[in-house]
Amino acid sequence: MLLGILSDTHDRYEIMGLAVRTLQDRGAEFFIHCGDLCSPRMLDHLAGLKCAFVLGNNDWDRQGIESYAESIHVPFHGHQADLELAGKKLAVLHGDYTSKIDAIVKAQQYDYLFHGHSHLKRDERIGRTRIINPGALQRAAEKTVALLDIASDRLSFIRIA
After folding, report:
1. Nearest to 29 by CA among 152, 154, 147, 161
2. Distance (Å, rounded) from C-alpha 160 to C-alpha 54?
3. Whole-model pTM?
4. What is the CATH number of the domain that holds 102?
5. DSSP code, position 99
6. What is the span of the domain harbouring residue 56?
7. Quick one: which of 9, 65, 12 has its CA closest to 35?
8. Structural domains counted in the chain
9. CB 36 within 8 A of CB 95
């Protein structure tokens, strides 16, 4: 299974659309957004796709995002998503609380931990858990997303625009 991973799109509607299309063109089957959408309309790019998203520290309109997600049938996970895909356990959060990241890593109950917030790419393995930050599509020197093949554990960062 190929996962398309995005974060920190910060209401950049066109570039998020380009990122999702790029990931689709590369075979992404499931999409994960690690927070900081900033407006409900950003979810349009995930509508009709297998996906999960979490809220970030700049997602001020939680109620609006949650209501819109429900209206277009995009699963809402609040501040943390706990998923199981292709036999792997995944945690998704924004990353603005490093203590949550530390606790998840310390517990060693997940194969993958996806987060954003820093606007910096990250790929690090601590024990069982591989920690991945796809980078950002706003306020980043290089705008990136990530594509992960869960079966082979192969990760690639993809530059957008």
Report:
1. 147
2. 21
3. 0.96
4. 3.60.21.10
5. H
6. 2-159
7. 9
8. 1
9. no
